[in-house]
Design a protein that fits this description.
- With 197 residues, this protein is α/β, with parallel strands linked by helices.
- The chain is built from ten helices and eight strands.
- It has a six-stranded mixed sheet, with helices on both faces. Strands 2-3 form a two-stranded antiparallel ribbon.
- Helix 2 runs parallel beside helix 5 and helix 6 packs antiparallel against helix 7.
């Protein structure tokens, strides 16, 4: 906001299992707060669902978030991935303040419809924000490509590896559904990337 005079439209947050174990959910809470969602807590300290932060309290737009989870995160914290998807679905329906999730979903839906998807499929896919590798697969392939820089000549080759490895969607009843084009559409709107490391 200080540098650009506006909030980012979309923030990409990288989730690693080791970082979640180390910081006890700071990244997940950051994702929730960006969208204007907070956990509901039981007296025991366990999370018991989610609730909307009223726009008046939030005092800014609901910021869109792309979640990029490692394969180990996907395997160790599937419940957190489901919770983050639930938060997206809850936040996207809010109309009390400027909602960048809803605006970006509308753009993605328009693109998916133009690509020939049905109205229902385009609507459902446009609301997905959690991506990882295909179940049973690990790593996004970028470090391997970087260390093998002598065997590729175009940056697009690295991008292709990343999109092929990370292009699987999680949420809305899907668990590792191939969604490379959807990942590309979401990445296109990212202003800021965050990783706690």
């Amino acid at each position: 906001l200080r540098e650009h005079g506006r909030y980012p439209d979309k923030v990409a947050v990288v989730l690693w299992a080791t970082e979640t174990l180390r910081n006890e959910g700071v990244n997940e809470c950051t994702v929730l707060w960006l969208m204007g969602i907070r956990p509901k807590w039981q007296p025991s300290g366990r999370v018991d669902g989610l609730e909307v932060v009223p726009g008046k309290e939030l005092g800014r737009p609901r910021i869109d978030v792309l979640v990029s989870a490692s394969g180990l995160y996907r395997d160790l914290f599937p419940d957190k991935m489901e919770m983050l998807d639930q938060a997206v679905q809850l936040a996207i329906r809010q109309t009390d303040i400027d909602n960048l999730l809803a605006k970006n979903s509308a753009k993605i839906k328009t693109k998916l419809l133009a690509d020939g998807l049905s109205e229902q499929e385009a609507e459902e896919l446009s609301r997905l924000r959690v991506f990882s590798q295909e179940p049973g697969s690990y790593g996004n392939g970028v470090s391997e490509m970087a260390s093998a820089s002598g065997v590729w000549t175009e940056e697009r080759e690295v991008v292709d590896v990343y999109e092929n490895r990370m292009g699987f969607a999680f949420g809305q009843g899907r668990w590792g559904a191939p969604a490379r084009q959807l990942l590309k559409e979401n990445l296109a709107g990212v202003d800021v990337t965050m990783h706690s490391r």
